[in-house]
Structure formats: structure tokens, C-alpha cells
Amino acid sequence: MTAMSRVLSGLQPSGDLHLGNYLGAIRNWVADQDAHDAFYCIVDLHALTLDIDPAELRTRTYETALDLLAAGLDPERCTLFVQSHVTEHAEMAWLLECTATMGELRRMTQFKDKSAGKDSVRVGLFTYPVLQAADILLYDAERVPVGEDQRQHLELARELAIRFNHRFGPTLVVPEASIPKMGARVMDLQHPERKMSKSVASPLGTILILDEPADILRKVRKAVTDTDGEVRYDPEAKPGLSNLMELLAVATERTPEDVAGSYARYGDLKDDAGEALVELLRPLRERREALAADPGAVATLLAVGAKKARSTASATYRRAAEAMGLLAPG
Length: 330
Ligand code: TYM
Prior knowledge:
- This protein is mainly α.
- The chain has helices spanning about 20-35, 45, 55-70, 90-95, 100-105, 110-115, 125-135, 150-170, 215-220, 240-250, 255-260, 265-290, 295-325, and strands at about 5-10, 35-40, 80, 145, 175-180.
- Strands 1-2-3 form a 3-stranded parallel β-sheet, sandwiched between helices.
């Protein structure tokens, strides 16, 4: 039997998980658990680049673990861990910072967006993508399942791995982004020109994975569309309606074009999209309630995950450190 290929991905514990996180990433993480050696990481070090209260960060880290389990991650079939529990992430990030350039980090669009108009920008926000590259490269990950907004960060991780190997000899696995055909860019229901996001407050525009069915239906019903009344899949000209078509399509395993052909009225499409999303998310909400009843179990499984992650990460870190000329400890 050939060894299973390695998959790694990460998610910030910076807020409630939304439909974009689920369709763009987590759903595919769940699917990858069986056929791959999968590592999934709650990236609390990355969350330090935001203004987040310490007590809230701790709570959110824990709740994110519960949400991921509710979404279908199974610690028997994947390694789920908290980034800061494996100290090699910060250490590897330093090695990689000594190979990355200011110019390439300045070109990162997420950095440009998050720093725009600010007088004072944290260094951590600037070097954020290098820490992300460290997350990936430490685990020799071949595939990284993410949403479309992470494409540029993945390109950087590849570039850093290639550069490292060129300069210091073959050491790191060059990863590839795995971006789903559909659901890779779920748009805000109220502002369909921008992506659904944890960091932008848009209560009506964001469907949370734990939203009550009535809230999901209400949000979809109130979703912004357009006024020409023609049901057509056209993300450029009709971003709101096309977003709903994509959501209905992913939830019912159809194509948006097929969905478009089945409706004459926006209202009917909205009703069906709302219902389909309620059904898609129902098992998550039910599992989440059951998990919350046993908080101790989560701490234990995160400890097991960290131990497993550490044994892989420390080996890669040593390989990289020694390739760069750091003296091996005695
Ligand atoms: P984060 O926490 O912002 O998002 C987690 C995952 O959700 C995807 N996503 C979306 N997909 C579709 N439509 C949307 N509206 C949407 N919003 C978010 C993201 O693409 C992501 O896959 N920098 C990363 C976390 C990270 C990471 C890593 C990812 C840190 N280290 C290593 C992969 C590998 C982030 O902030 O994701």
C-alpha cells in the first residue's frame, strides 16, 4: 500500500464559523480525512494579529475546536490541534522570514486590505503569510484545501519552499493549493460584491454554521439581488442572485447553470436555497449541542492532536534548521 498523501489546512479562531468557511474549506477537510493523512490546525498565533481580547481568544479557540468536530472532523481520522501548542510553528516562521523578502510580503493583497488607511500596522500582520507557510511546510503537506482568498498565500508558501530547496538542498515539500470548483468564494448576502467574512460585521449578510433555521431562512429571503427579474447565472452582472444559485447548487450537488434553468422567479429560488442550507447545516447544529455537553473531552483530544503534530513538525524543523547551518543540539 502506498503512503497516504499529506494534507494540511488552518483556520483562525477569530469568530463564529460561517458558510464561507464551511463550503470553501471545512467541508473539504471532512472529505479528505479518509483518503489522506490530514492535519488541521486552529491558528491562534495568526489571531494575535487582530485586536482580540485574551480571554475571548481562549474561549474562541476552544469553541472553534467544537465547531470543527460538529462539522465532521473526526480525531480518529485526522490530527486536529492548536497551532501554539506546537512551538515549531513560530521557530519555522523565523527560518522562513530569513528567506522571504519585504517586497513579496508587501504584495500580499490581504495585507494591503487589512493595513489600508491605518497609521500603525503590526509587524505580525506583515509577516502573517510567512507563519502560514511555516504551518504548511512543517508537515510536508502536498495539498492545502482552502478557499479562493488564500490562493496568493499558497503561492508564497510554494515559492518559499522552492527557494529554500534551491538554496539549501532538497528539504521541504512544495505544496499545492486545493480550491473547490464551487463554494470557493461565498459572497456576503447583503453585499454580494464582497466575500462573506468573519472580520466584517454583516449580521444579515453572513450565515453562521450554527444559525437557527429561522435565521437562515430570513437571511436568504432578505438577500440582495437585482431588479431586472431575469433568472440567469451571471456572477458578473448578477452577483447576488448568482451567489444564491451557487449556494443552492453546492447544497444539492447540482451546477449553478442547472439551478438557473429550474426557476422563473427569484422568490422560489430563495425559498429553495434557504431550505437547502437549513438541511445542509442541520446535522452540524445537532452535533454541536451534543459536543458542548462534554467539554473535558475536547481538551484531551487537542492534547493528543498536539502530540502527534509535534512529532512531525519537530522532525521537519530540525531538517530545515540543519540545512541552514544551525548547529544540531548535542
Ligand atoms: P480563515 O480563518 O480566514 O478562513 C478559513 C478558511 O475558510 C475559507 N473562507 C472562505 N471560503 C469561501 N468563501 C468565503 N467567503 C470564505 N471565507 C473564508 C478560507 O479560504 C480558509 O480556507 N490564513 C488563513 C488561515 C491559515 C491557513 C494556514 C490556511 C493559517 N495557516 C495554513 C491553510 C494553511 C485564514 O485566515 O483563514
